Known about the structure:
This protein is α/β, with parallel strands linked by helices.
Amino acid sequence: MNRRQLMLGGGALASAPLLGACGNRGRVIDTPPGLPVSRFGPNSTAEDVTEGLDLSGQVALVTGCNSGIGYETMRVLALRGAHVIGTGRTEEKARKACASVQGETTPVVLELSDFDSVVRCSKAVQSLGRPIDMLICNAGYVAGSEQQHAYGLDLTFVINHLGHFILVNRLLPQLLAAQQGRVVMVSSFAALNEPIVEIEFDNLGFKNDYDPLHSYAHSKLANALFSLELSRRLSGSNVSSNALHPGVIKTNITRNQAGIAQWLFGIYADLFNKSIPQGAATSVFVATQPNLSSVSGYFFADCNPIIVKQPPNNLYNYAMAQRLWEKSTQLTERWLSAELQL
Ligand SMILES: NC(=O)c1ccc[n+]([C@@H]2O[C@H](COP(=O)([O-])OP(=O)(O)OC[C@H]3O[C@@H](n4cnc5c(N)ncnc54)[C@H](OP(=O)(O)O)[C@@H]3O)[C@@H](O)[C@H]2O)c1
């Protein structure tokens, strides 16, 4: 048991707090001044927040559409009339998920740990020839106790952050072609874990100090910072970018954890946290609410923008966000077309 696991519960329970850590844990959060406060909250569902909205004519892309929050996000966006491009790691997973929801959907393969697959996915999406109104980077991975690498980097960072970094960059022309494009990054309050999570620019392989909890928290901070810097780079354009914490929800996210940890997490999530329809609400809210068209660069939870009052935390660390962008560009240069770089 390492120090971090000890802090969060320890021993056999170490994996359960992995997502328990995603909860608010008594942090004091506030609404950033000047932003609209919504009537929706933790109990709202994705259907609640889109009631009365007609999304016909709009195109949404949801990564990780075959499971949990991503599936519900796709289902509700399609129900409201959007054409949803749903990605799955295999053709079968994407096809099956897309076929099972009511509305217009297109399955596309996306394996985020393989940057060539990300390029193929972006080309398949481009070939549809439609502007993208909503790009919801939902797919996420929590590793097990054995560390894995891709491209010499920590696999969780590659999947959760770099794969999405390439995808969003390659699809920017289509987002810019939409009347009002929105990028939505599904992050997590895990980015606020203790000790303070920061991007470990000189240790992106976690070669000597691997801990799946830290690796996940690190990748989720990267999601939030990517969104922040994207928003800064897109300021003055018709495309917004926001990140969010969906809540703590019993999904398949614990699949790589020990059985006991999965079981405990399930009980915890059932008793104290959100259902999947509630878990998808903030993603769908940020992607669709008409009065958020010019709101960009914020972190949302429970269908509202938030700031965390206890410093220090890095959710709004602009310098770290800019440095992460530069590092990510350097690491993925081969897979980004020159003309698509911001
Ligand atoms: N559940 C929570 O309590 C919670 C809390 C905070 C944040 N989140 C975030 O919410 C998002 C959705 O998670 P979830 O809870 O709905 O989990 P989930 O049910 O496990 O869904 C995750 C999705 O991501 C896909 N995915 C995983 N690795 C991938 C890869 N290498 N390439 C492409 N797609 C991949 C999965 O595909 P396969 O099914 O094929 O593996 C699945 O479709 C994640 O970003 C997660 O970090 C969840």
